[in-house]
Amino acid sequence: MPLAQPVAVASGRARPAGGILRRTSSALGGRGPFLGYTRCILPTSMKTRLRKATLALTATFVALAISELAVRGLGLAPEIFGVPFGEYVTSSDPELLWEPRAGHGSVNQSGFRGAPVEVPKTRPRIILAGDSIAYGLGLEDNETIPVRLAQNLQSMGLDAEVINLGVDGYNTQQEARRLELTLPGLQADYVVLLFCLNDFVPLDSIPEAVFRTATGKGAGKAIGMAYSPPGESPLHRFLLARFHLYRMLSSALNRKPPKVAGRQARIESRSIDSAVRENFGRIAALARVEGVEVAVAIMPKLLRTKEYPPRAVHERVSRMAQETGLAVLDLAEPVLSELHARDERLSLRGDSIHPNALGADLVARTIAAWLVGPPMRIQSKR
Q1: Please, which residues have CB within 8 angstroms of residue 333's CB and are 6 or more apart in sequence?
Q2: DSSP secondary structure, 345-368, as one string
Q3: How far, in Å, are 80, 85, 204, 213, 236 from residue 229 at the CA level?
Q4: What are the structural domains, with CATH classification, of the chain?
Q5: Segment 254-286, tens digit of pLDDT
Q6: What's the pTM value of the predicted model, to 2 decimals?
Q7: CA 134 → CA 3, 9, 113, 128, 149, distances in Å?
Q8: In whole angstroms, what is the distance from residue 324 CA to residue 295 CA?
Q9: CA–CA distances in Å: residue 150 to residues 112, 129, 299, 360
Q10: Which residue, 102, 245, 280, 331, has fewest beta-carbon neighbours within 10 Å?
């Protein structure tokens, strides 16, 4: 005997099956062991709305995914700073705030990334100071600018030791302080400060949320946090850290109206320039005491554009360095010329600031040629 088709009962009428299965009680007046199934019929209009909503959500997800990939590939999102957990510790120095964890990973016992400092000193010694570019963010130990600088100098006839004094996230104030603390004991012959265009960030604007560990737990504690302005929600911080599209849109939406932004930018520019000039002055004063020459090497953004928008910023940095008595090497012309002549990328993917291995070698080769070339800034120093 064929089985009867399940039905749905509503308002005393039986309707054909064809909806969502729903478990029911016994067919015998709601009592007894027999269990049956009926179907709930969704109105056609509701089905249509659900189908449209599903299609809309799918299309939105695909569009967001494509946009995220495009923003990453073109490097359109502003950079955010992150400290990998365990690689750095909080510092007892109120200006440094954090420093490399000595003896951890690639960091030697002196707190510098790379091989131990040679004792006794037997050859010219060059210090490469700076931020994450000097440190070698995203690069293997043998790909960093200091390592490649030593190799390029050797190929040019100069056997020199190059010490990596770079630290992720440092600005000029922290770089100056680190030099004040370490340079006196290093017997350096030359110092190159690799200046990145994001080194303008003043120390008092570094979000307190990043360094909450430093205030509550003392120095020497492992940290691993990211830039995030105080007061922002955890969700906002998560989205900023994970999604470049969100970061780009957030940055664009938070901009002030043009008139206010222009006036505010001029005020902030003067204030920040004053701070950078002061820090250059500290480095120059230290260099005079130690009897060592210092050059500021200005690192360009690795942009494949006909015009280079930050050129005026390079001129400002160059002028401030020269006013305080520091030598200047502007890397924009040689590095960008090579960038346009190559098909390969010279920066980390989705990043126009940090060089990849090819970019790091190009920067190192340019600095090496400048050091040994006329007027032989380093060769005569033994």
Answers
A1: none
A2: --B-TT-SSSB-HHHHHHHHHHHH
A3: 11, 19, 12, 15, 10
A4: 1-41 (no CATH), 109-204+244-372 (3.40.50.1110)
A5: 644 334 344 444 434 556 788 899 999 999 999
A6: 0.69
A7: 79, 75, 10, 7, 11
A8: 11
A9: 15, 14, 18, 12
A10: 102
